[in-house]
Amino acid sequence: MSIPNSSHSIEKLPNFPLSPNGAEVILGNTLEPQQLAIPIAPSSITMFGPRGACLVSETGSLWVSDTGHHRLLGWRNLPTKDNQPADWIIGQPDFFHEGQNAKGTPGRNTVSVPTGICVCGTGLVVADAWNHRVLIWQNVPEDSNVPADLVLGQRNFVDNEPNRGTQQATANTMHWPYGVFYHQGQLFVADTGNRRLLIWREFPTENGQPADLVLGQPDMVSRNENGGASATAASMRWCHDIAIWHDNLVVTDAGNHRVMIWQGIPTENNAPCAVVLGQNSFDFVEMNQGIYLPSASSLSMPYGVATTEEWLLVADTANSRLLGWQQPESILSLQSAIASAIIGQNTSQSKSENRNYGLPTRHSLNWPYGVKICGNTAVIADSGNNRILLWRFNYGE
Question: pLDDT band at residue 32, thresholds of 50, 70 and 90?
């Protein structure tokens, strides 16, 4: 596998994990660069800064957190054409309204800045970030405004104060939760504002159920940045997304510009990770390792992460690219490893939006916040371009 450098065109890399033809399907209108900062009127086609998306199965349905419009958009089946309109909506009375909690009070089918989203068995989990809660549907919705069955972080569906109105965190409160992930009956939540990761060893069955484990803090009540000290192998600043790679826990720590990887899945509070990507040591936390231009081993605010058997993909958000690492012989050999592939930029030293600040294309990215993989499809939340990319995964073809 060739390592990307300044002379490589990304499309010419051997064994490149995503199709060199670019995204097969683009959802959301493509706008001129000067329009990207202007709020986009909601419709069944448009999105405003989507932060997360997931496929329920290889052929659908697809659910998207349309973050800036405070709603979830659903497609009955895997979309097959650009700008295909959504079939379902949750969080607003119709496709043409927006506003936090539909400009009303929180409820079982309202959201305020929804971000991370994932499938959990037969159900769906959404991080409802500015309501400081996680919503759970026991069955994936197949209609508009299906009410959620469970809420975590709050005692009911009406309250939405951070940490339930207190200055201290507990095992059953949240402050701006961003990412959610499900694995073999366990639920993981990136409780970003509390600078920690919460783990439920068994899937929750009650509203407000407390988490069983915490990573990033010494206990369930602390919430200081990096545990109140300098960064370590156990601390976090802004954790955002979660994945499992060969039974090893992976967490993006955007505020420390790194990805944390544990050997296995921790069973004790505040367990330290084994290696980090993006930094040369556990205590160094500078953006792009303190250098203005990125490299094939540095990161700048990595938000999203996804895995396949062979690949670990990271949304290197502020560098407007994805980085890919191939499966190593030992997880420990990944410490500060150089990426095997770069998506969205022509060189490892490039970080401009849409490759040299041009118009969005099928190969370009602008502050991608989320990435998930289902079967042969990578689902990328290309947030700065207000769109979702469905990009074919090659698997070494």
Answer: low
Domains of the chain: residue spans and CATH: 10-392 (2.120.10.30)
CB 214 within 8 A of CB 266: no
Distance of CA 179 to the CA centre of its chain: 6
d(CA 22, CA 81): 14
Q: Check residue 29 and give its pLDDT.
A: 73
List the one residue out of 351, 391, 346 whose CA is nearest residue 371: 391
Nearest to 353 by CA among 9, 73, 27, 31: 31
Question: What are the backbone dihedrals phi and psi of residue 150, each rounded to the nearest 5 degrees, phi first?
Answer: -135, 155
pLDDT of residue 68: 97
Tokens representing 4 are 């990307």
The band of 12, judged by pLDDT with boundaries at 50, 70 and 90, is very low
Enter the pTM of the model: 0.95
Residue 356 DSSP symbol? H
pLDDT, tens digit (0-9, with 9 covering 90-100), for 256-295: 999 999 999 999 999 999 999 999 999 999 999 999 999 9
3-state secondary structure of 354: helix
Residue 163 CA to residue 359 CA, distance in Å, equals 41
- By three-state DSSP, how is residue 181 classified? strand
Phi-psi region of 347 (alpha: psi -120 to 50; beta: other; left: phi over 0): beta
Tokens at 367, concatenated:
């502050």
